[in-house]
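User: Predict Mannosidase beta like's structure from this.
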Amino acid sequence: MASDLDFSAPEVPEPTFLENLLRYGLFLGALFQLICVLAIIVPVPKPHEVEAEPSEPRSAEVTRKPKAAALSANKRPKKEAKKKR
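Assistant:
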């Protein structure tokens, strides 16, 4: 009975080109995800430039002005609609 059992390794077919492509693609995808997660976790110090400081308040003022203009534009039609009633 012991001679009937075959404990040799089963024959495994060689992986095809598409299987290899899929396997290495999964490895590259995992590596890319690790790089992205590390980019979020590890802070990168930004170089401190003198020119960037004066431009920041200007950009903040520019963003505030359109919001104020949009709010006043929204209020005008409502007042005109009330006058028509």
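The chain has two helices and no strands.
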